[in-house]
Amino acid sequence: AGMAARCLCLLLGLLGGLQAERLEGVLHAEGSLMGITVVLNSGAYSAVPRQDGSFVFHEVPEGNFLMEVYDTQRAWPMVRVEVGKTVPNGVTAVQMHNRQKLQMPMQIKPVLAKQDFFEKRQGFQWSSLLMNPMMIMMLITGGIMFIMPKMMANMDPEELKKMQEMQAAQGSLSFSDLLNPEKLKEKQAQAQLEAKKSKKAKQ
Fold it and tell me: Per the UniProt record, which residue ranges are transmembrane (predicted)?
């Protein structure tokens, strides 16, 4: 249907002595322009933009045309095009949404790009792993497990024994006792007394 309409317009132009013009433009957009088609009068004429965005309609006859860009990713402005001998330079083009006149070749930008509703997934980052609270706790625990045996090996035997007795005494304390300084002192005194008794018994 589009090819037949084009042939008919060209035939009428030749028979009536109508002027035919070359209509050029450039689509400016980020990303690929694959699958985009530029049409006049809903497909009576069509052009496919090149990789650089440029497109051309050959031998457009006199008359008024509505140019549209078929694109699933962006919304482009509709352009009213007039071709004729009485028109300055043979062609005039006006964007429909803001009434702005376009110079030839037409420079067209999208009025709305397709919105991305999904957040782009970021790649793996070591900094985010190191800032994880669980990872920090694991590093601290690992450091303690690595350092403590060395500290215990270099500790004086008497001090080591006292520490073990203190840990044993504190292990028998309840949570409320741990919060009570008097209870802690009492348990420490008992642990020291028991240590002295065991020392005398050995003698």
Answer: 134-153
